Amino acid sequence: MLKVTGLYKSFGKVEVLKGASLEVKSGEIVVVVGASGGGKTTLLRSINYLEKCSAGSIEIAGEYLLKDGAYASKEEIRSIRRNIGLVFQNFNLFPHKSVLDNLIEAPTRVLGQSKEEATKQAMDILSFLELADKANSYPFELSGGQKQRVAIGRALALKPKLMCFDEPTSALDPTLTGEVAKVIRSLSTEGMSMLIITHDMEFAKMVADRIVSMEDGRVLEKHIYSKEA
Predict the structure, then answer these.
(1) Cα Rg for the chain, rounded, in angstroms?
(2) I need a labelling partner for 114 at 20 to 30 A (CA). Which of 69, 146, 178, 226 fits?
């Protein structure tokens, strides 16, 4: 589902990614851990085309976003990015929109769905996330765990093939971590491929099929945890 090979990225004279390589198989949950400054978030942002790299390749669902340092065309990039869902650590919900409106915004604007179709899909997603009763609530009325589940729902509304999570529990009270872990495990049973960046090893072991460590701009080859091990 995802293959990153030899990725390099610098900010000015500071090289942040130094040949990073990573694979996520279809239906697999891969968690990347490591100390701050190791390049985890830059890797995730590069996969989502929020940062541009100088060298390497990024292949997503069989299509190259970046190949040997050359990016795809703008049209191809738009198409490839529709296969990726990104959940930010601080939720990034629209505060002036209800939960339901947060979920139908992208499908109607990006996918061209009718409001009726997008609403039906959104309510199905909210039911799956056990949030159907919050459809007409606003973000300020929700707990941290509920906001994170809405953020996941908003990403799911675009029907991605790969879901990326940037520190999904960092803004949560530790008691709410289980809520997010439950949703991720549920998505796994549906066959969703996921890449998760976190510093929370306990959470990582709750959800991961495989955990790899990132250090000094490189993903270490030997995984540090695997359900198969």
Answers:
(1) 17
(2) 146
What is d(CA 59, CA 55) in angstroms, rounded to the nearest whole number? 13
Alpha-carbon span 122 to 120, nearest angstrom: 5
Q: At what angle do helices 144-156 and 115-128 cross, to 10 degrees?
A: 130
pTM of the model: 0.89
Residues contacting residue 23 through CB under 8 Å, at least 6 positions apart: 2, 3, 4, 30
User: What pLDDT score does 177 carry?
Assistant: 84
Domains of the chain as residue ranges with CATH: 24-39+83-226 (3.40.50.300)
The rounded Cα 104 to chain-centroid distance in angstroms is: 19
State whether residue 31 is helix, strand or coil: strand
pLDDT digits (tens, 9 = 90+) for 170-196: 877 777 788 888 889 888 888 899 999
CB 175 within 8 A of CB 145: no
With residue 67 as reference, give the H or E element that holds it: strand 63-67
